[in-house]
Amino acid sequence: THWKHGGIVGVMGYGGGVIGRYSELGGMFPNVEHFHTIRVNQPAGWFYNTEELRWFCDLWEERGSGLTNMHGSTGDIVLLGTTTDQLEPIFEAMTKRGWDLGGSGSDLRTPSCCCGMARCEYACYDAMAMCHNFTMHWQDELHRPAFPYKWKFKFAGCPMTACSCPFDWPDG
Predict the structure, then answer these.
(1) Which residues contact 134 (CB under 8 A, 6 or more apart)?
(2) Which distant-in-sequence residues (6+ apart) come within 8 Å of 79 by Cβ?
(3) Alpha-helical segments (H) within the chain
(4) Residue 11 falls within a domain, yes or no?
(5) CA-to-CA distance for 118 and 60, rounded, in angstroms?
(6) Which of residues 131 and 168 earns the better pLDDT score?
(7) Integer Cα distance of 84 and 12 in angstroms
(8) Taking 70 as the threshold, does the pLDDT of residue 5 lie above it?
(9) What average pLDDT does the structure give for the chain?
(10) Is the pLDDT reported for residue 159 higher than 90?
(11) Domain encompassing residue 67
(12) Are the beta carbons of 21 and 34 closer than 8 angstroms?
């Protein structure tokens, strides 16, 4: 790969949410010399209105590459490709609009959930409320990496959802 991962970029006061990317081919392709990625904390259940989606598209056309990834494996809105000097203005614009950075690095990753009771008659509990409350309570852990590895929480209201755990229980 011709990408260098630059963990030295970010926004003031946050340790997560920005994934630094530099290309060693910047001389040949100047538009990708700096191609940082921003993760945006998505709303519970991934419910958006078109006004907010248009706003993100406009912001990214102005300050980034215009490329987005809606809910990659992280669940976040992923804004692909911007330069270091654009990070603070992007963060300021998002904050004024009520949006926050998602998790990245060795921290709590952005919690995610299904649409639960909003669309499913079989939901066992309000997964969106649980995800929202969890996110609000642990928001600081999304921004200031304090763990030796990443932690991910996904809330599913479905009685048919399997649970997986990436470690062994002590008794078994």
Answers:
(1) 111, 153, 155
(2) 37, 38, 39, 40, 56, 60, 64, 67, 68, 90
(3) 50-63, 87-97, 127-143
(4) yes
(5) 30
(6) 131
(7) 12
(8) no
(9) 80
(10) no
(11) 3-155
(12) yes
Nearest to 141 by CA among 112, 168, 115, 102: 102
**CATH code of the domain in which 31 resides:** 3.30.70.2500
Does residue 139 fall inside a structural domain?
Answer: yes
Distance of alpha carbon 149 from its chain centroid, rounded?
16
- Stated as kind and residue range, the H or E segment containing 4 is strand 3-5
What three-state secondary structure class fits 40? Answer: strand
In a domain, 44, yes or no: yes
Is 21 in a helix, a strand, or coil?
strand
Q: Count other C-beta atoms under 10 Å from residue 14's C-beta.
A: 17
The 10s digit of each residue's pLDDT in 13-55 is 776 778 888 788 878 888 778 888 888 887 767 778 899 999 9
* Residue 110: inside a domain: yes
Rounded CA separation 113/151 (Å): 15
Q: Say if CB 18 and CB 36 are below 8 A apart.
A: yes
Length of the chain: 172
Question: How many structural domains comprise the chain?
Answer: 1
| Whole-angstrom distance, CA of residue 6 vs CA of residue 151 | 21
